[in-house]
Each structure stands twice: as structure tokens, then as C-alpha cells.
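<instruction>
Derive C-alpha cells from the sequence

<record> Sequence and C-alpha cells follow
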Amino acid sequence: MRPVLIAVMAAVAMAASAPAASAGQVRDGAAIAPSQPAVTVTRDGDAWTAAYELDRDAPVWAFFRSALIQESRRSWRAAQWRVLTPGVVLERAGNYDILRTVDGGALPRSVRIAFTPRSENLEADYSVLAFTDGSVALPSGQFDVFPLASVGEAEAAPLDLNGYPLATGPAEVTWRDRAGPILFRGQRASEATAVQAETYVLFGEADMVESERLVTVIDPQLPPWISGATEDFAPRVADVYAARLGPGQTDRPTIMVSWAGPTSGMTSMGGSVLPGLIVMRFEGSGVVEPTARVLGAARWFIGHESAHFWLGQVVRYERARDAWITEGGADLMAIQALKSINPAYDARAELQKEIDDCIRLADEPVVEAAGRGEHRALYACGAVFGMVAEGAQRRATGGDWFDFLRPLIDASREDGVLTRAEWLDALDAVSGDPSLRRDMEMLLDEGSPQAGDIVAALFDRSGVAYSRDEDKVRLN
């Protein structure tokens, strides 16, 4: 989540939806590996603990989800987690938070950690949701760990672990609340156990309201207009996507919305999406009342997150560096869906922001933007590339972005992966112009101080109407 003036972050899950929870103990449908770490997460009043049972001896265990706090680019665990097991420390190594021993030996098989969950704005990752009634929703993936041979190996481990050799499977995680049932995958349960649950687990009494099209968990102090806008708009935008792209990952999502309070001078929206679930966090005096500007931004936000039930869940990218496919694509889906629902919506202004940000951030390789903390490049340049594909589609068939996208989604439904090569091959086929691919790959892999000229040339050759105003590329 990114709290700028109006901030939006979409973190895309890459696992299939799992079965709903039963009334008692719940076990995920995934096969359990013969050997894997296990962790029990327990809330006991204000005390939270994570008790690890590690499945092998290793001097270092790293946390898969180790995103930094956006504002400070520091580890969020450093301030929220405290190791209780003597001789074990938590620190940062390269891209990961790690556990290691003081003496360099193997960690004890049992490690206990106390933590105080707090909502932070993380770089392209899932954050804790804190509700004003004391309820807390934890992202399940933050407890997964993997073993490494040394701190040096941790420092060298890549940000994208796709294809990286891992010695063990993901952790089996159990969640418990001494005060009563938790909410897991839309149902209350005394406890839940799962592997790669890819969801949020709610501790506390926040109310769940079910309707034919939505399940909502809304902070009781949330400004009423936000919950009303969510319940009204989410089904409408989903209908647009289903009509244009076919079935999505779910037709009855759960939407979980927290409220961080009317902080003076702030207008902040953040959130993410997981299988069957959209989570959102609102904060600031600027969202207390439903101005036209804030309402429009909230709808765009819902549109972007909902788009990931198709582009991100039905199909996902192959490598983290290819997130421009899903993030920029979801931006463009949201802009076009809002325009179709409300013809007065200023789509051109939103598209201009995408162009401006892409040109500003593509002076360095777009595929390396996450490592620089410039995630916005993946959204903006992905949307610009989508505009080019739409221009080519319009010239070829009179179609639009959805017409370009649907065959890609349909062709990838079986394996669930939309690769960069497949996306660019489709562009080659519809445009008949391989130079479009060449220029996109230059921005992706190399970046350019002349990014504006390259974007203008892409628009020229694909038929996107624009004009030049000094160094700026202005959409007509």
C-alpha cells in the first residue's frame, strides 16, 4: 500500500483459490510435503506469538515476504517482531529478513517470536489490516520461511525466487485466537491450518455481511459512503469485466475494508488482492466526505483491484519482473471499465498520468524497477504498452484493449501463466510491426534517457493520437 495523495497498490496472488473453511479445524486442500516447517500463530489478548517448528538444521532461515516499508525502505519486522529464543536474531540480509544464530550454528528446531501487528505501507506486498474495534487481519504469507546455508547466500538470493532452488516446502501455518473463532476464507473457525493459504486471517469480532454478489467485512468506523460505494460499484465493474473477458477467478468476492482514521491533511487508499479477496485500507481527512474527486479515485481503486480476478488470478505473470503485464493491464482495464459505466469519467486524464509516469521512470530498466523501489514504473509502462496494443488492435479489427486481452487470457487459462513472450507475440500478430516489440523491450531491459521519444514513436506506429509539447507527450 502506498499513501501518497491517493495511493493504490495491487499485490497479485499466484496461487489458486482453496476450499472454504469448515466450522472447526481447517486444512488447506494442498498436498502436504513430507518435510516442511510448521508455525502456530496465536493471539492471547494483546500478546501475539509465532511458534516455529523447523523441519531441518540450517544456520539461516529467510522470510519469503520481506517487502520494505515504502516511506523508509526499512524492514517492517525489525520494529514489530522480537525473537524470544536465546541465541537467535532477526536481521536484514540482501532482499530478505532472516533468522540466524549468534554463533553461526544451526537454528534450534523450535523458535518462538513475539510480535505486535501494525499496519504499514509496504512496497508491493500485503500489509496488516487494523480495525478500529480491535480486530486485526494478518496476511497469511508473512510467516513462510525457507532455509539457506549462510548469511552470504541470503544476501545473494534474488528478489524473484521463481526458479530458485528451495530445500523445503512452504510452511504449514496454524492460526488461533484465545478469545474465540477466527475468520478464515469467509467462515468462522475455532482454528485454521493451511499451506500457502494466500488469504487474510481475521482475528476479532468485525462483522461479516453477505449478499448475493459480495461478502464484506467493514470497519465499523469507516465513513459510510465508502462502504456504500464499495457494495454498489464492485458488482457493476465485475460485470463489465465478465462480459468482455469471460469468467474471472470468482463471481462473489470478499471485500475487507479497514479505517486508519481521519488523519489531518491526508487522503490515502491502499490495498491488494488475493484469491477471492480484496482488501482495502482508507485513511485521512480527505476521504471523510465523498467529494467527486475522491469518489472517482475510490471507484478506480476498486476497478483496479477487481481487474486482478482476471489479469493476475485467472492468469498470472511468469516472473516478478513481468508484473507490468498484470499491473499496467489492470490499470487500463479499470480506466476503460469506469468510462463504460460513467461516460463523464475523465479517462484521458488518467491515461496521461500513465504516460507521464512511464516516461519519467523508464530512464532505467523497467524490469528492475522493483529493486529500485520504483514500482510505479511497472504500472505506468505496462499501461502505456497496453495503449499501444489497443491502438494496433483498433487498426486491425476496430477493437479495444479488452479485445486484445481476451485471447491471451483464454489461451492461458489452462496453465494460468501469461508470459512476456506470449504478450509480445500477440502484439506482433495483431500489429504486423516487430519494431513495436523492439522498442518495448528496450524500455523494459535497458531503459532510455529518451523514453519520451520512444513512447511517441510507439504511438506513431500504433495509431495512438497524441501531440508533442516541448518534451511532453500529450494524449489527444
Summary: The CA atoms of residues 63 and 143 lie 7 Å apart. The radius of gyration is 22 Å. Residues 224-245 form the longest helix (22 residues). Confidence is low (pLDDT under 50) at residues 1-33.
